[in-house]
């Protein structure tokens, strides 16, 4: 494998200088850059990123904060980092509130170390990991039985999140048997998890190309 699997970031920014800063600071990630909120919505139809970095002042007279509801509607589980040098404090708080709120707001000029830390948290703790925690909380409140289908769905997402965290940043082939023992599921289940991650674009197909031929009947 030529490169380790990495997280993907959709950057919505029209300032070339800011884009160069992001490209340098986030060189360890797979970056897709667009200049407007409209283009960002189109990009989400093609692929779902792990994180969205959204500038407030965009091309074509658009305002990033105005696109928060649409972006959340298109990819509700994807954490959004709003970057702005013009939002007042009350507008920053507003951007973080409610069902269409961003996860983080960073002020310009962006501190590189803070940006890197924020993106790392967004990738590892938000998104899929946050969805798993919410589902488990709901199951606990509703006293969902472990064998019910909804619980099995949550456990699958939790397992996939664990696999994703283990496999990102490494060039080693996944040890299917080891993961099978650790998670106490069949090899087919692990292969299916890898398939799901690959098809969602969260892992490259090169990490385990055999999934297409090895995956048989429904996994246990």
Label this structure with key terms:
single chain, 220 residues, Rossmann fold, 5-stranded parallel beta sheet, 10 helices, 11% strand, globular
- Strand order within the widest sheet? 2-1-3-4-5
CATH fold node name of the largest domain:
Rossmann fold
Which series of helices and strands comes N to C? Answer: EHEHEHEHEHHHHHH
Beta-strand segment tally? 5
Low-confidence stretches: none
Classified by CATH, the class of the largest domain is Alpha Beta
Report the mean per-residue pLDDT as an integer: 84
Largest sheet: 5 strands, parallel
Determine the structural class based on helices, strands and strand pairing.
alpha/beta
Can you describe what's shown?
By secondary structure, this protein is of the alpha/beta class. It has two domains: 118 residues, 3-Layer(aba) Sandwich (Rossmann fold); 87 residues, no CATH class. Helix content is 49%, strand content 11%. The chain has ten helices and five strands, in the order E-H-E-H-E-H-E-H-E-H-H-H-H-H-H. It has a five-stranded parallel sheet with strand order 2-1-3-4-5. Helix 8 packs across helix 9. The longest helix is centred in the last third of the chain and has 19 residues. The radius of gyration is 19 Å and the shape is globular. 29% of the residues are buried.
